Amino acid sequence: MMNERQSHSLQRRLLATMAVGFALLLVLISALLWTYAQAAANRTQDLLLAGAALAILDRVSVRTNGATVDLPNSAMDILSLNPVDRVKYRVFVPGQREITGTRDLPAAGDLTPSIEPVFYDSVYRGSVFRFVLQGRQINTPEGRTWVAVQVGQTVEQRTAQQRSFFTTGLAGLAVLSLIGLGFVWVAIRTSLAPLRQIALDLARREPGDLALVEGVPPREIKGLFDAINGFIIRLRRSRTLTETFIADVAHQTRTSLSAMQGHLSLAADAKDPNQMRTRLIKADRQAQRTVRLTNQLLANAMVIHRSDKASLQPLALKPLVRDILGESLRDSQMRAVSLSFNDDDLAVGTDVIAGDEVSIGEALRNLIENAVRHGPVDNTVMITLASDESRVRLSVEDAGPGIAETDMARATDRFTSLSDYTKGSGLGLSIVKAVAEGHGADLKLGRSSLGGLNVTLIFQRLAVLVLLLAGVLVEPEPAAAQTLLIHSATDPPAMRPLVESFENRNPGVKVNYVEFQTLSLYQSVLQPDTARQPDVVISSAMDLQVDLVNRGLARRIKVTPENAPPDWAVWRSELFGFTFEPAVVVYDRREISSEELPLSHRDLASFVRSNEDRFRGRIGTYNIRQAGIGYLYATQDSLQGPQALRLFEVLGRAGLRTFCCTADMVAAMSNGEIAFVFNAIGSYASHYAAESPYLGLHFFDDYNLVMSRTAFVPKTSTNPVVAAQFIRFLLSEEGQRIISEQTPLLPLLPVANPKSAIEREIENRRGTFLPIRLTPGLLTFLDDLKKQDFLSGWDMSLGYAP
Amino acid sequence: MLLVEDNDELAETIIDRLRAEGHSVDRERDGNEANELLRHFKFDLVLLDVNLPGRSGYDLLRSLRARTDDTPVIILTARSQIDDRVLGLDAGADDYMVKPVDFRELSARCRVLARRRAGSASNIFSAGTLSFDRAAKRATINGQDAQLRAREIQLLEIMLDNIGRMLTKEEVADHLYTFSEAPSMNAVEQIVTRLRRKLDGTPLVIKTARGLGYMAYLADDE
Fold first, then answer.
1. How far is A442 from chain B (nearest CA, A)?
2. A GO molecular-function term, please (chain B) (predicted)?
């Protein structure tokens, strides 16, 4: 019988070889594919970078104090086509001065700016960026000079794209390889058919059928075919031998039994009691021999049977040997025999082998019995266990007559030993031999120093593996109550219902809410003091929030798709908008009738121009130098076209008044100081309007800007898990419902049954709302030069002296 | 003694042999009946076959021991696998023999068990010229005091309690010395040697199997 564990499938082996071949091919192709994917992904990103760099270079101009740039929104818009990556830019006069942007961007070695864009990868503050460097020569009063633009983007999208190109390509190849392997499989099946034929032939046979396998095999399996037939021939011979053995056994047993029977019959017929006694003593001796013969035959059969079953298990020899010796000593035949056990050369724990307890016990018992039976009454028997690095020796020696050197080789021979039975090497040794073979052990016969036979069994030791289990120490969760620190540029009363509800849902979490102005919040995140860092940062200044996230300060948060905000209100899975707050016109119903309200921004300009005296000094809006939200609305308005700039001029001519905040504007309106407010925050305005009957809210028909309050978790948060939970809560159905029902804020998603007037109004005008998108595009107006330009333009419009 | 054996032929020969040696032997064929019998009568020794009609020898032995009955039991079995031996000794057998049984060996084992029982059950142990009074802690040979020291008396007691059973040197040392005394294996050997010399001429033999331990037996049993 073949050992199952060692068997292997030809088919599998062939398939495996082919599979390895295919795999090698795949590795080769995938290396090429990877390079290609990288080039393709780079090309895509480089196009965007080049576009942005060109757009910026286009706006480089010369002023009295040298080269300057008016950062175009389009540059950031181009870069925003990549929805994931963070953005850096720098405009500078090489070797002389910085114009704007991030000063410490890494230069590309000794690259000098040229008209051709140069692309390279470089690490900036721990992240890999892809940069483009491009220059342009301009004429300044000092002469011609280079102006260089460096634009960079992180490579997350590129990496994802490269991976996606690569996996798609590889998947195709893998499918192709599998199909190829399928063909190989079919081919193998077909060519292995003759083998199955032989298998079928052998499987159908009766156990006794030892005829040769017929047929003409293919060349490749002729060797196997011949080997099988050779084996069958040897099996026939072996069977003949077995038959001889059985005949021999039958002969011995029957002879033995006949002798006994003969002695008994003679005894029964004997007239003389003395004669009868003699016969009976002979019969008794004969019976003892027959018993021993039978015992040994049975033991032999059992040992052979057990060695077939491969029932080997880890077994310590020493306890087994001691047990058997202890048991043997009880036999009264052992009284005069001097039995000793020597384990001086056995190191502790080195006596473990893969063995069968029953078989080894039987072998040892037979060896002792042999020594006792064939030696003198006061025989000395010594059992020795000794071990070295890889083996264990079990020896049984005695001081008996031993076996002559010439007979040693034949002593263990199963088929010839029977004839030597009376001389001393009976079936006993052939049992030992069978046990040795069953254990893969060596059997050595030799002369003992005691004078008799030395039988040694040499077993292979079993290496005892000590598994060192690495103690995994699980650090206990800190038991202290968790505090969530929120730094927020939103009135505490507006957020309180959300905070309380969150605390209720998460027992053990305490929220610490600290209010900031948008700008001071921005600066506190940029330049943290030693106090504890916030876990959540909330602000209405979307541009400042985008800038913070663009600096790589935020942590990524997983949000389930059903709670994910719309595309415009999320960036990089790091910054999330959770409210919907349109800019609105708030007007005093006592001053302006709803019929004369302008329908569009253009109409507003005409309306103010034609009522300049009526509204002089009585129009309010945010002071865009003080209020981040005012600056955001104003800059976004300016992107909508030249009519916005005209509007600012008209408002300026009419003596526009500026305020820090919505509350002040509303207060001024209740006093009758101003007649209407332009670009108030819709949510707050609607809150005040609900309390005051003469406050009216008005949206335009052309467009209405929408701001969203945004939140992110800084990387420095000490409690990021709970912080992420809080943000998920803000976006959840429950959180949005609380925003709608219990706060003056407006929920990000349309509510099913709008209750407040403004919610209904928003629902009616869905199409006119223009949400400000969370993209690097918001960075344009944070550029220092751009901001100065915009603010001075604003001041000019409003008639302030520059 | 009681023989529980279902084969009539074998039972007959065993009974004849044991009766010839002067024992009185009862025989039971069925496991359940034997169990009932053992419930109500006390025997000095039980010879127990394993394969029995009604209830197996092991079950019978287990219920016997469960009743805290410590009657000596020798198991007779036709199977010789080690599992059988372990199973029998685990169930509470005192000894174990494989059929076909050599009658001389069987008688010898019976005598050993009877001796062991007698040795631990009564105060006076006597074998041939040797006599030992447990209560008085005194051994006499031919009526003369054997002049044994305290440790030798202790050793003799241990050996008599375990006649026919092999004791390792460590087991002997554990009996001889209290926990606080540091037992020395050399000292054990010396005590055994001295005791053996003093018992010379009596039937009690203390056999040494080097590397294994000691076993006491009575020479006149042969």
1. 24
2. phosphorelay response regulator activity
User: Of the candidates B85, B95, B212, which has its C-beta nearest A322's C-beta?
Assistant: B212
Domain ranges across chain A? 12-164, 312-467, 488-580+708-771, 582-705+772-802
Q: Can you read off the two tokens belonging to residue A585?
A: 């016109």
Handedness of CA A103, A109, A113, A117 (dihedral sign): negative
- Among B82, B95, B108, whose Cβ lies nearest the Cβ of A361? B82
- Residues of chain A positioned with their CB less than 8 A from the CB of B219: 335
- From A299, A326, A343, residue closest to B166, measured CB to CB: A326
Q: Are A15 and A22 in contact (CB under 8 A)?
A: no
Better-predicted residue by pLDDT, A767 or A420: A767
Residue pair A130/A46 in contact by the 8 Å Cβ criterion: yes
Q: How many CB pairs under 8 A join A and B?
A: 58
Q: What fold, for A488-580+708-771?
A: D-Maltodextrin-Binding Protein; domain 2 (3.40.190)
Span B88-116, mean pLDDT? 81
Which residues in chain A touch residue B170, judged by CB atoms under 8 angstroms apart?
A: none
Q: Could you tell me if A342 lies within 8 Å of chain B, comparing CB atoms? A: yes
CATH code, residues A312-467: 3.30.565.10
Token pair for A561: 């798709």
Which residues are CB-contacts of A378 (< 8 A; sequence separation ≥ 6)? A336, A337, A338
**Tens digit of each residue's pLDDT (9 = 90 or more) over A664-686:** 888 888 888 899 998 888 888 88
Q: What is the pLDDT of residues A392-404, one digit of tens each?
A: 999 999 988 877 7
Q: How far is CA A348 from CA A316, A343, A646, A661, in A?
A: 11, 10, 99, 87
Q: Is the pLDDT of residue A420 over 50?
A: no
CB atoms closer than 10 angstroms to residue B103: 16
Q: How far is B87 from chain A (nearest CA, A)?
A: 14
Q: Kindly state whether A248 is in contact with chain B, defined as any CB-CB distance less than 8 angstroms.
A: no
Q: Where are the domains of chain B?
A: 2-120, 122-221
Would you tell me how many other CB atoms lie within 10 Å of the CB of residue A185? 15
What is the percent of chain B with per-residue pLDDT over 90, rounded to a whole number?
A: 7
The string of DSSP codes covering A312-334 is: -EEEEHHHHHHHHHHHHHTSGGG
Interchain CB contact of A326 with B (< 8 Å): yes
- In chain A, which residues have their Cβ closer than 8 Å to the Cβ of B102? 288
Place of tokens 């007559």: A401
pLDDT digits (tens, 9 = 90+) for A74-125: 888 888 888 888 999 999 888 888 888 888 888 776 667 788 888 888 888 8
Architecture, CATH, for domain B122-221: Orthogonal Bundle (1.10)
**Which token pair is A685?**
């305005």
CATH class of B2-120: alpha beta
Considering the domain A582-705+772-802 in this protein, what is its CATH number?
A: 3.40.190.10
Strand A704-707 with A769-771, pairing: parallel
Report the CATH number of the A12-164 domain: 3.30.450
Overall average pLDDT of the A277-286 stretch: 87
Interface confidence (ipTM) of the complex: 0.82
Chain B CB contacts of A394 below 8 Å: none
B199 within 8 A of A315, measured Cβ to Cβ? no
The answer to whether B105 contacts A331, with C-beta atoms less than 8 Å apart, is yes
Mean pLDDT along residues A191-215: 82
Partner residues linked to A42 by β-bridges: none
Peptide bond just before A497 cis, omega within 30 deg: no
Give tens-digit pLDDT for A553-582.
Answer: 999 998 888 888 888 999 988 999 999 989
Q: What is the DSSP string of B178-215?
A: -TTS---HHHHHHHHHHHHHHTTTSSEEEEEETTTEEE
Fold matches, A488-580+708-771 and A582-705+772-802: yes
